Amino acid sequence: MAASAGASRSAGQKPRPVRRALLYLGVILTALITLFPFFWILRTSLESDNQVAQGVGGKNGIIPGHLGFGSYVTDLTTQHFARPLLNSAVVALATTIVTIIVASLAGYALARLHIRGAGAILGFILLAGFFPVLAMIGPLFLLLRHLNFLDNIYPLIIVYLVYTLPISTWLLKNFFEQIPIELEEAALVDGASRLQTLRKVVVPVALPGVFTAGILSFILAWNDFAFAVSFLRNTQHFTAPLDIVTLGQSAFQVFYNRIDAAVVIITIPIAALVLIAQRRIISGLTAGSFR
Amino acid sequence: MSTTIAPAPGQPARARRRSPGKLDARQRGDRRLGYLLVAPSLILLLAVTAYPLVYNIWNSFHFVNLSYAGLPHNFVGAKNYTAMAKSAEFRAAMVRTLAFTAVTVVADLVLALVLAVMLNAKFRGRGLLRAAVLIPWAVPTVVSATLWKTMFDPRAGFVDYLLGFIHKGWATITWVNASTWKSWFVIFVADSWKNIPFVALILLAGLQVIPSEVYEAARIDGATSWQAFRRITLPLLKPALVVAAVFRTLQAFFVFDVIYILTGGGPGTSTETLSFLNFQTFITNTDFGYGGAISVVLVVIALLIAAGYVRLLRPETA
Fold it and tell me: Does ipTM surpass 0.85 in this model?
């Protein structure tokens, strides 16, 4: 059977050239739309203040005649971007650790310990993930103000759990359910307690799930903007995403090179995580969205 | 495989298996431990969702404004709600939010479906492309918003540079905060660029579970690929489409970050959405009574959206 050019709708087993061409056109377009903007901020971040002021064109074309790391140095020294970076790293890592512990416990209980109302509890945990963030900030603002915890990064660790716990608990519960029950039985028969079994047997076996939940939690906590902009006031307490909004603005010029250098800096850890753990992230996300 | 050792009365539908010789005492111990283990998760989540909701409801019936700290927090009845219903600002924000949600959800679902079908086809570098499209989803909204702000900037941007080659006058278009529709266009681009990949991944997962035999059978019966798509792919993909639509609708309806970063609600108030208005009422105006009323409405809408989709999905899953 000859593969006729796309127009024919007969059942061709071989790929049809027109359709193939369309597919590759789509692939190239997708790759361009996805990646070109990243190239553009990288390019802009390597320009000098003067080059940005001159605008794009002439010697500052798609690839500028002169490139340098000046704006990165400016960001990390005079613009004090290191502090917000550190704040973000601390909060995101702490949120991840708390999430893993709390979600593992809950996930295990929901998967194995026959608690009454497990369905309703799980339903509530998942529903919490849909709670509109901007509807929480008022009361939480008042609470933090009352406790003298406004403009402080540590309460964010608790608040960010609303991003991380729903998907992590769900993921870990599913992972725990897939572990052969005989493994746990053996440990229990040998006299281990439930908690010992969880720590020594279940979690190690479910390590891929723990990793996935950890990576997703880190990304979700690292990316927050709404809570940070509502609760933080002084730049030394800012998280990195919040700091970027005020960075590189002056009365006379918007320093896109500095802004984009900061954007490149906070994108790198996330892009690295995505490239290393692509499969895990995809399976984690899609498992979290079904059933 | 999910097997449970004990007969668990009152458990939701799950495979129950009796295994003889186990002591009831252990099961009771297990259950007690179980409550202990879910407690931290439940308490923490209640603290950041239920507590704000109840506090919002309380505040919404009171006068609570930190800018007038000297005034007593009197009970004001439904005043905050009637003020909201009469407020032109609130109504305008509601209309904008609904319009943005409708456009975004439809456009993103269609584009994501195209992307998912593409990512499901076999081609060289498929793994790489799947990883690449994940990056916009994974980066902070600050990154996606700032990145498109740079792209659309008349001086530093690529868009005007490119348009300048087509028509000289287009080389200096101011996109953000000059005209309402241009600002919305940039918001839409930045928001969709970030969120379409996630929707596409959900749909892709849905496509991957459709067995290829179904398509082969259809082909043998002489169905065209369009017919196969209409009659097989779309119906079988419906659960995934509904899930994707829920996620996307809720996200779009509560859009905030990208607007705060790109336009700050401007020009004027023309890109202020409900979430933005809620933020301003709480944080800028420190009006926690009126803000509480807006929040209560937001939560009710979130529940309605979720419930609506659950109903939509039910006949399929039953």
Answer: yes
Nearest CA in chain A to B275: A134
Structural domains of chain B, ranges and CATH numbers in brackets: 78-317 (1.10.3720.10)
This prediction has a pTM of: 0.89
Residue type, A58: G
Which among A31, A136, A141 is the nearest to B129, CB-wise? A31
Rounded distance between C-alpha atoms, residue B169 and residue B192, angstroms:
27
Question: Does residue B267 have a cis bond before it (omega within 30 degrees)?
Answer: yes
- Answer whether B47 sits within 8 Å of A158, measured CB to CB: yes
DSSP string, chain A: -----TT--S--SSPPHHHHHHHHHHHHHHHHHHHHHHHHHHHHHTS-HHHHHH-SBTTBSSS-S---SHHHHHHHTTT--HHHHHHHHHHHHHHHHHHHHHHHHHHHHHHHS--TTHHHHHHHHHHHTTS-GGGTHHHHHHHHHHTT-TT-SHHHHHHTHHHHHHHHHHHHHHHHHHS-HHHHHHHHHTT--HHHHIIIIIHHHTHHHHHHHHHHHHHHHHT--HHHHHH--SGGG--HHHHHHHTTB-SS-B-HHHHHHHHHHHHHHHHHHHHHSHHHHHHHHHHHH--
| For residue B7, pLDDT beyond 60 | no
- pLDDT tens digits along A159-198: 999 999 999 999 999 989 888 888 888 888 888 888 888 8
- Give the residue among A136, A130, A96, A154 at the shortest CA–CA distance from A226: A136
pLDDT digit string, tens, across residues A128-141 = 888 999 999 999 99
Are A135 and B261 an interchain contact pair (Cβ–Cβ within 8 Å)? Answer: no
Residue of A134, A143, A223, A247 to mutate when probing chain B, most B C-beta within 10 A: A134
- What tokens appear for A66 in the block? 């002169």
Cα angle vertex A216, ends A118, B261, to 5°?
115
Tell me the β-bridge partners of A60: A57
pLDDT for residue B20: 47
For residues B183 and B245, give the distance between their C-alpha atoms in angstroms, rounded to a whole number: 25
> Which domains are present in chain A?
17-70 (no CATH), 79-247 (1.10.3720.10)
CA atoms lying within 13 Å on the CB side of residue A164: 35
Question: Residue B82, Cα to own-chain centre: how many angstroms?
Answer: 28
- pLDDT computed for residue A169 by the predictor: 94
Q: What is the pLDDT of residue A15?
A: 57
Give the whole-angstrom CA distance, residue B185 versus residue A142.
36
A193, two tokens: 């307690």
**Which chain B residues touch A290 with a CB distance below 8 Å?**
205, 239-240, 243
Residue-level pLDDT at B17: 47
Tell me the C-alpha distance between A171 and A282, whole Å: 12
Is the CB of A208 inside 8 Å of chain B's CB atoms?
Answer: no
